[in-house]
Amino acid sequence: MERLLPLGRDTMKQFILFIVLISFIDMFSQLPIMSPFAKSLGAAPALIGIAVGMYSFSNMFGNILAGYWIDRHGAKKVLISGFFLTGLILILYVFVTTPWQLIAVRFIHGLFSGFLVPAAFTVIANSRKDGKQGKSMAVSGVAVGISAIIGPAFGGIVASKFGVNWVFIIIAAIMLLIVVISYFIIPNKPVPITRKIEPPVTTLFSLVKAPMLAVSFIGAFSLMFAQGVLAYMLPLQVESLQLETQYSGILMSTFGITAILIFALPTNRLFDHYQYQNTMMIGMSIIGIALILLSLSSTLFLLFICMIIYGMGFALLFPSISAMLVKNTDEETRGKAFGLFYAFFSLGVVVGSSLTGVLSVSFAAGYIIAACILFVSTISLLLYFRRKASVSESLQ
Fold it and tell me: Which of the residues 72, 82, 150, 325 has the least number of beta carbons within 10 Å of its own beta carbon?
């Protein structure tokens, strides 16, 4: 028999959103500090890129493993295990003294933190009504937006005032506290398996081959490719402009503030009034424009303008691809689908940060590369949906 605190349905939903917020703060707080931290350990540009991207590389495997465990054992066990293990691993950053040690800790950190987000979003998705997936994911995006505000600013300011180690120590303490709270609050609700369980590889291929899920995965990869480039390049751009380190975090928070306004205001209704693929492609294009403008920016004021535009694109893209996934899955496959979805998120960050690091390109060139990926993806999807529409018309 479960021991739960007597919480209402609305309170439970709010707590799950809080779980999402903490999960993303773990990632967002690293954005303004990881490149400078790796550089302070004597890492070359290529190793800086690997250090930034290694978290997301191992995060892919954590996401996929989480998907299977969620569908077999329920989200509660996966969440609690993820928070506990991630909290312990964060302490290891305090003892890092070389670039390769940092890369090793990043690998383990990313692996265990990969359990968190798929489990949290599966709980949210399974609790929503059909036809409201877009608004649901937009509201969930409020938690992501808040973490995008708090995380980078927290990471940048704490690292600047007290040292980078305190960023990891504080987040570790919060995560371990969440473990205790989650045990008493989150109910176990394993998904009943009503059909034959396919082998893991077969399931992955069947999910990737589903056209609308593939579109969602492309959107996830494109978004986080841009995010990976931004995480690598923006702190270095701020440093080159001789601005204080904390401005990297404040700039990252700016796009979060913009996104959360769109998520939380009545504008969140537009996600269920327009086709998800349309808002997705508009969002991708806006992010591409923001990156091009970032490559041309040389003042703090212009950087803030660019991050506002970036936030608008993020606010359109993230709920659209999430809702597209929910609409095209059921409760028996949703955990695996979300695991694979966030694996593509992680893959995008890995490729974005690592590629720009290995190529040793300037921040301007890095932004342009990311913008080109977004524009190519947008054009390809636009052609696909137009061809699909024309085929449908010809069959009528």
Answer: 72
